[in-house]
Every structure is written in C-alpha cells, then in structure tokens.
Amino acid sequence: MKNKTMFVVRINEGTSEERIIGFLDTERKVFEKAIHASKHILKVLDAIGIDAQYFEEVLLPNNYKIQVWEREENVIYETTSEEIKKHGQYLHFKEKDEDHRTQVFLPRVYWKKRDAAEEKAKYEYYKYLA
Fold first, then answer.
1. In what order do the strands lie in the sheet with 112-115?
2. Residue 120: phi, psi to the nearest 5?
3. Between residues 85 and 39, which one has the greater pLDDT?
4. Domain ranges for the chain
C-alpha cells in the first residue's frame, strides 16, 4: 500500500517540460529531493535551489523542512523554509531548449549536513513512487 502522506511533486504538469522535483511528506512536514552536486549546485553561490513557485505556495506557508540528498557525496542537506526565506536568492535560468523557472537558492553554509548512508534506501525507494 502506498503511503497516503507521501506525494510526488511535479511541475509543468501536462506539458512537454513536466518533471518531478521531489517528494512531499505531509505527516512529517518535509519536502525531499535528490540532486547530483556536479549538475545541481549553483557554483557561483555554492547553493542548492528549490522551485520558487512551489516554495512560496506550499513549503513556506506550511513551514516545511527541506531535505536534499546529494548523491555524489552521499550526504543529506537539511534546512527550514524560514531559513530559505531569510537567506535565499531568487534566480531564473533559461536555456535554449528548457526553461528552469525561477528558483530560490540557499548557499550551503546555511544547510545542516549529515551522512546519508543509513537513509539511502529510503531515497532509492522514492523513485518507485512516481
């Protein structure tokens, strides 16, 4: 049976640019996503980004925690919506073939970091919920 408090979060639904940006656990009040540092860390700010619209409409008003599993280092970064509100920077990237929408980036100095070895199985499982 699927967990009824865990939801797949998609943006651009119904379009050719639809994609999964993470998972929302409404019981624990945690938004979780997985990234690869070499591709997803904004190097100029040394920051991790979250879709700004989803952040403002869901995560911030409901005071969610945000957890990011960085697969290459196998670590989990964790912060709060309030921390992103206080220290985040909004940027919008458009590439020739893709619009990444506006994201809010929080430098890694504001994230708590811990080893993800024990939680890796949980994140691998999320792939199958989609």
1. 6-11, 19-25, 30-35, 65-70, 75-80, 112-115
2. -60, -40
3. 85
4. 6-126
